[in-house]
Prior knowledge:
Elements lengths: L3 H15 L4 E6 L12 H5 L4 E7 L2 E6 L3 E6 L5 E4 L8 E7 L4 E5 L6 E6 L7 H4 L10 H8 L6 H6 L9 H11 L12 H23 L5 E2 L29 E5 L2 E5 L6
Helix pairs in contact: 1-7, 4-7, 6-7
Bound molecules: zinc ion.
Amino acid sequence: MPELPEVETTVRGLERVLEGRRISRIEARRADLRRPFPHDLGQRLTGARVTSLGRRAKYGLIHTDRNDTMVFHLGMSGSWRINHESLEKHDHLLVETDDGTRLSLNDPRRFGSVDLVSTDELKEWPPFAALGPEPMDITAGELRRRLSGRSASIKLLLLDQRVIAGLGNIYVCEALYRAGIHPNRAGGSVSLERLRRLVAAIHEVLAEAIAAGGSTLRDFVSPDGELGYFSKSFSVYDREGRPCTCGGTVRRLVQGGRSTFYCPGCQH
Ligand SMILES: [Zn+2]
C-alpha cells in the first residue's frame, strides 16, 4: 500500500514530466474510483498549465494556472504510469500533455481518488481541514503540545491524522523502535527529550524511504503497490519472532485493530 514516501516519490516523478506543461487531453475511462471522478474534470483541466506539484499527507497535488488543483490519492494499489506502450485494464484516468507525454493512473483495487479543488481553498477542503502538521515539518515542541494530556498510546496517537498527518503503520513502528519508545506508553507521558529522539527518528525513516523510492525512478513513476527496497531494511515491522540486534526477539501486539511490531528489550 502506498505510504507517504511512495506518494512523495510519485509526486517528484510526476513533477519531472508535468511541471510547466499544458494538459492537452484528459479522459476518465470509468465513472469512479473510491468516489466518482469530478464530472467537469476534462472541461476544467484541458488546456490548463501545470504550475507546480506538491503533497499533503498521502495526497498528491497537481496545481494549475486556473486556480484548480487536482488532488489524487493512491488508495491501496494506485500508481501513475508514464508513456506506457499500451493501456492496461486498470488504467482508469489518462492525462496527456502538450509535449506528447502520456500518463495513466492505474488502480486495480480502486480505493484511490481524484478530486478538483480550488487552489486557494485547499486548506479548508474537508479532508485537509483537520489534518495535523506534516511529519517532515513537525518539531518536538509541537508534537508535545499535541500529545499533552493524552492517555491513549503513543502508537495510536501517531497514527491519528489530526495529531500528525500521513504517517502509516510501518513508519510509526520503525520510528518508535529507533527512538526506544514502547508503543503502549501513554502519549502524554513521553518526555520532551524522548520526543526529540522520536521526531528525529520519524524524519530519518521517511527520508530513507523517500531516498530508496527515488532510486527506482526511471521511466516508471514509483511503486506498483510494493514498498520498494526500503522494506528490506525494516528493523521490527513484520518481523515477529525474529531477532533484534540487541539479542532480544521482536514481538507483535494489536492496537486499534492493527499489528504493532516492537522489541521489548529496546523499547520502554
Ligand atoms: Zn532490541
